[in-house]
Backbone:
């Protein structure tokens, strides 16, 4: 099953750093994640669309297509808005 | 040789512009800056259904595309790149915004998103509002200080780092004008909800 | 009065005299303040014949018209000089309180020339300047000196060097307000070479604001924008800059073990999340800043400001170390010694790789957290292995016959972002005027975080346009002088307007970015005059030839060549990277004249 890794304040909101989902597309996986952890919904989605400041990667590559298919071994990482210097 | 990914971005935003009713079938335009060159839609092509051969590449300081079919608006896009630091231009014909431009010299949004993002949209005017050096210069000058401006009766010109950003301002403007139109139709007293909003006009 | 203080303070350390004279307002209009004004003045004063550690080099401290006005982050200041590390034009900027206080003394610029025969410290109280004997302070570390000279947050602020600067380490930093740093390029060594230990400021003046109504409106709008941006209102205050550790590692752009890999298995252990959970006491901010990205961290041994992402990376992933407390302590030690953390960490990493491979004789090895503190001490005092490392990785690696193992550009060590995972960043490092630096136009916004919009980090065509824009914009912000984190929530057009409101001169957004372009080109001219050329706009061979063998950036090397070609054309430079006459005329740089040594 694809794994989802959470970072920064998403961890506190979900109460965990990592979990598995059954969804077969990025969109399905994220929806499942939000269903399991409703507080994440507001942070990740806005009017049903991914918040522009959220960064989602699949195996380290930015996920631009939410309907991209996920395989068993894929790792989806979700980061809230962040920066550095 | 235009990178496939660049073409795909043009195609996607072009499609968004058409489906959002921001352009007619063959109207509007998109361009980006690549170093000292510009990529722009070919004259006569449909933004809603762009093919790779619909994109032309030319120098910023003059048209060396060898293509007589470069858009009539190439002049204004080039002027924008020569006079501002922008990397992308989105030109739409947003209906409600155009209607508003016919009766005022600046559009000052009253809805939250556009007051926040745009503050004020100047309206400039030019008699031959298509493809002349005068028009190009006027539009480019106005864009030196604003992300998006209206050319009276013609349409919007918006700048951004990417096509997606430039389109975002255009879309926000049109939404803002539609909201204001509805407010006028409702014709009820306006309850001001934004502090210091009287200063937006001086932005 | 115009929004600038209109006064330059010039200090002659050799003669122990000082004078003030008016700021050229035409120069101010074109270069504004901070980095821009500093660079313009440096051009006149320091030519190719000047050794960076000789008395003929100068230190030019600058603030801008916005400094101390109370606009968000209007606390920053700059120092400009010729770098002992790279030999290029160098400016470094810092936050805290010192810059604000210096502005309140009623000056825009302080030029420090010559060399004092004996150690000296300077006290500036409004327009009075006093030279004090520093023989008792010489040898003291930064924290002790800062306290001794009366550091008091809003009222009296201390800027100083530590042992690293005194011993002329080419990575020495100038420190202010105890733990803020004018870090990169060896600014501290220049100050040490002048026998100048500290500069203390106290001021009662207030900067003039030409249009207070407009200023108030923009202040309010900025407050709203910063509060609305999740970065500046949540992520930065809560996790600080180190929250980038996990994301850079996730996408395979975290330089590891002297750039041998692009992912670090210990990233989680040194992440911002870990820092916040286990070692963070609270966050803090510089003067007039609502963001509060500063960390106050505590381990069993120390408590202090920092560490920042780059510092954690330099002692962490770059050295193969996942011991976060040791890293926090190393950062604190660098603050006390007055050393740049990025260059120090990356130099140690270079020494580690060369030692493991037998090119350098030392017991330094990747992963050895216990070696950090003693090595840093040795570097600051030029003792033992420290004497080899004190002047940076390029000199070290060259001495060992392996210059290609220094992960630097023009001699300045690159920071965390690996160009093989971010094409634009590679171009940025190769072309940055002060050497391998990310602050000259960080592409992490567009290439990683999607700010303002996401662009493909592996795309090459068209990337140079973004780098140019970001370089110009960063140079403009460094000339105002404001903190670049404000730019994460507030667009450039606000900065142009606030500048207009304060100075009364109408700058439009394009004009303001144009200032940045002007500054960039002037820095380039300075470097060309020094003898830098196209061949120096490059990256270490490892990044051009050795692709990572695993991770998301697997198979990618930096495609510098085509990006560089496009970059030169986009900047209006010829194929050798020399600004064309037309571009110089456009920017008002065509008639700069000769060096004025008076």
Residues:
């Amino acid at each position: 099953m694809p794994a989802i890794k959470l970072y920064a304040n998403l961890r506190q909101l979900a109460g965990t750093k990592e979990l598995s989902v059954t969804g077969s597309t990025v969109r399905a996986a994220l929806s499942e994640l939000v269903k399991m952890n409703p507080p994440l919904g507001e942070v990740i989605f806005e009017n049903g669309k991914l918040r522009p400041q959220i960064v989602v990667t699949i195996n380290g590559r930015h996920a631009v297509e939410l309907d991209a298919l996920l395989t068993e071994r894929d790792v989806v990482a979700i980061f809230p808005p962040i920066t550095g210097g | 040789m235009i990178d496939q990914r660049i073409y795909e971005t043009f195609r996607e935003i072009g499609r968004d512009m058409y489906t959002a009713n921001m352009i007619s079938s063959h109207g509007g335009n998109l361009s980006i800056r690549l170093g000292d060159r510009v990529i722009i839609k070919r004259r006569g092509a449909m933004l809603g259904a762009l093919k790779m051969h619909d994109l032309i590449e030319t120098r910023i300081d003059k048209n060396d595309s060898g293509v007589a079919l470069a858009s009539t608006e190439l002049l204004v896009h080039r002027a924008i790149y020569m006079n501002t630091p922008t990397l992308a231009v989105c030109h739409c014909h947003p209906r409600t915004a155009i209607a508003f431009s016919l009766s005022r010299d600046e559009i000052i949004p009253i809805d939250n998103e556009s007051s926040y993002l745009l503050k004020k949209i100047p309206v400039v005017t030019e008699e031959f509002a298509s493809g002349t050096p005068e028009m190009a210069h006027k539009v480019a000058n106005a864009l030196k200080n604003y992300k998006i401006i209206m050319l009276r009766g013609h349409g919007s010109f918006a700048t951004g780092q990417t096509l997606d950003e430039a389109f975002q301002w255009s879309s926000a403007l049109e939404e803002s004008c539609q909201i204001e139109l509805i407010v006028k139709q409702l014709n009820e007293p306006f309850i001001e909800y934004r502090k210091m909003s009287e200063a937006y006009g001086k932005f | 009065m115009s929004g600038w203080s209109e006064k330059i303070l010039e200090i002659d350390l050799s003669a122990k005299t000082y004078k003030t004279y008016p700021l050229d307002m035409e120069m101010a209009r074109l270069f504004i303040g901070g980095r821009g004004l500093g660079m313009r003045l440096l051009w006149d004063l320091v030519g190719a014949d000047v050794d960076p550690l000789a008395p003929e080099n100068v230190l030019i401290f600058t603030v801008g018209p916005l400094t101390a006005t109370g606009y968000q982050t209007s606390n920053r200041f700059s120092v400009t000089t010729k770098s002992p590390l790279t030999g290029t034009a160098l400016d470094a900027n810092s936050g805290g309180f010192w810059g604000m206080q210096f502005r309140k003394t009623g000056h825009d610029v302080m030029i420090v020339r010559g060399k004092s025969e004996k150690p000296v410290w300077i006290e500036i109280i409004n327009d009075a300047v006093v030279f004090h004997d520093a023989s008792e302070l010489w040898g003291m570390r930064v924290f002790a000196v800062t306290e001794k000279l009366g550091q008091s947050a809003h009222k009296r602020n201390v800027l100083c060097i530590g042992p690293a600067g005194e011993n002329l380490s080419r990575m020495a930093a100038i420190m202010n307000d105890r733990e803020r740093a004018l870090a990169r390029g060896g600014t501290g060594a220049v100050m040490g070479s002048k026998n100048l230990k500290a500069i203390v400021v106290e001021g009662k003046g207030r900067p003039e604001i030409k249009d207070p109504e407009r200023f108030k409106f923009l202040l309010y709008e900025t407050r709203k924008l910063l509060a609305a941006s999740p970065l500046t209102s949540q992520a930065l205050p809560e996790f600080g800059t180190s929250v980038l550790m996990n994301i850079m590692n996730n996408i395979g752009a975290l330089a590891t073990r002297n750039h041998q890999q692009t992912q670090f298995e210990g990233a989680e252990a040194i992440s911002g999340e870990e820092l916040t959970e286990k070692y963070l006491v609270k966050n803090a901010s510089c003067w007039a800043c609502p963001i509060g990205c500063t960390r106050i961290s505590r381990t069993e041994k120390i408590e202090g400001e920092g560490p920042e992402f780059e510092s954690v990376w330099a002692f962490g992933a770059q050295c193969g170390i996942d011991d976060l407390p040791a890293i926090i302590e190393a950062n604190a030690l660098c603050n006390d010694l007055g050393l740049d953390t990025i260059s120090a960490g990356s130099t140690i990493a270079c020494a580690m790789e060369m030692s493991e491979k037998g090119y350098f004789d030392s017991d330094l090895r990747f992963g050895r957290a216990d070696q950090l503190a003693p090595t840093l001490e040795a570097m600051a005092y030029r003792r033992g292995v420290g004497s080899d490392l004190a002047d940076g990785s390029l000199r070290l690696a060259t001495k060992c016959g392996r210059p290609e193992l220094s992960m630097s550009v023009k001699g300045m060590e690159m920071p965390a972002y690996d160009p093989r995972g971010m094409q634009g960043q590679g171009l940025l490092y190769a072309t940055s005027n002060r050497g391998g630096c990310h602050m000259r136009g960080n592409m992490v916004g567009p290439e990683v975080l999607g700010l303002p919009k996401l662009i493909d980090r592996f795309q090459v065509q068209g990337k140079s346009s973004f780098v140019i824009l970001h370089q110009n914009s960063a140079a403009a912000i460094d000339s105002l002088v404001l903190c670049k984190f404000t730019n994460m929530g507030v667009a450039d057009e606000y900065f142009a307007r606030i500048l207009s409101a304060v100075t009364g001169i109408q700058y439009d957004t394009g004009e303001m970015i144009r200032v940045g372009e002007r500054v960039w080109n002037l820095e380039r001219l300075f470097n060309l005059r020094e003898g830098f050329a196209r061949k120096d706009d490059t990256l270490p061979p490892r990044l051009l030839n050795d692709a990572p063998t695993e991770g998301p950036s697997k198979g990618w090397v930096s495609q510098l060549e085509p990006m560089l070609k496009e970059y030169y054309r986009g900047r209006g430079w010829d194929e050798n990277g020399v600004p064309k006459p037309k571009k110089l005329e456009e920017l008002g740089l065509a008639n700069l004249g000769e060096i004025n040594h008076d």
Chain B has one domain: 4-202. The first helix of chain B runs from residue 4 to 19. Residues 51 and 180 of chain B are 36 Å apart (CA to CA). The longest strand of chain B covers residues 29-34.
